[in-house]
Amino acid sequence: MQVSSHTVYKELLDRRAAGKKSFAVLVDPDKTQIDQVGELIEKCVSAEVDFLLVGGSLVVSTHLEELVLSIKAQTQIPVILFPGSPSQVTPAADALLYLSLISGRNPELLIGQHVISAPLVKKSGLEIISTGYMVVDGGLPTTVSYISNANPLPSNKNEIAVCTALAGEMLGMKLIYLDAGSGALMPIPTEMIKAVSKQISIPLIVGGGITTPEKAAANCRAGADLIVVGNAIEKDTDLISLMSQAVHTSSKS
């Protein structure tokens, strides 16, 4: 069942206002076969996952839309596209994170690809959520840093992260996304999450390198509004329930 238009961002805002932390599972089309979706969705529904993100830095597979349609046929959990390129768009989803890589200085990923994709994105009818995307050094080169041809933010430079996030918000971004990248050795430091969270008034998403429920909960306590986990769950789907419980129990009472 398709979620009514323009409701995903409002849900994020409402949950944030109520002190409720959110949990999202990232589904990478390159690593997820259609015949595997049923079991994954069943575990997500059982764990009360709040959102499903679909996408990746590369996406060489050709079944993005089929994957989204299969997910939508099995759950009412909102499906949000997390595109690595303008080609990763399907109207079958509920919303699209329109990512601008504000941590880098590659003009193509700041605005160039958006100019190319704008007509297709508008035609899709998707709820468009402008997102200030910030890649933080996770201890090793990631696909996103290679594809973007941009250096990640140093993980020990909280002031740079804060100023970048503030600039994104003041430029009109609706979300800030701190990402250490898929398979990161080190997650985003909680000190950086706390510093950024204190200075912005829009929802903060954190992902990359979150491999344990304890780390997910710590990130929530530091100020993250939405935790995104993909790589760790690909290795062990039983973590979905544990991660979701950790995130939700860290919400304000």
How many β-strand stretches?
Answer: 8
Tell me the domain tally: 1
CATH superfamily: FMN-linked oxidoreductases
Described by strand count, sense and barrel closure, the largest sheet is: 8 strands, parallel, barrel
Mean pLDDT: 92
**Rg, Cα atoms, Å:** 16 Å
Q: Class, according to the CATH hierarchy? A: Alpha Beta
Count of individual helical segments: 10
Query: Strand-and-helix sequence, N→C?
Result: HEHEHEEHEHHEHEHEHH
List keywords for this structure.
single chain; 253 residues; alpha/beta; TIM Barrel; 8-stranded parallel beta barrel; 10 helices; 8 strands; 40% helix; disordered N terminus
Walkthrough of the structure:
The chain has 253 residues and is an alpha/beta fold. The protein has ten helices and eight strands. The chain has an eight-stranded parallel β-barrel with strand order 1-2-3-4-5-6-7-8, surrounded by seven helices. The longest helix has 18 residues. The radius of gyration is 16 Å and the shape is globular.
Secondary structure blueprint with pairings:
Blueprint: H1 8-17, E1 22-27, H2 37-46, E2 51-54, H3 64-72, E3 79-81, E4 95-101, H4 107-124, E5 127-135, H5 143-148, H6 158-170, E6 175-179, H7 190-199, E7 204-207, H8 213-222, E8 226-229, H9 231-235, H10 239-249
Parallel strand pairs: 1-2, 1-8, 2-3, 3-4, 4-5, 5-6, 6-7, 7-8
Helix pairs in contact: 6-7, 7-8, 8-10
Briefly characterize the structure.
The protein is an alpha/beta fold. It contains 10 helices and 8 strands. It has a single domain (8-249), classed as FMN-linked oxidoreductases (TIM Barrel, Alpha-Beta Barrel), CATH 3.20.20.390.
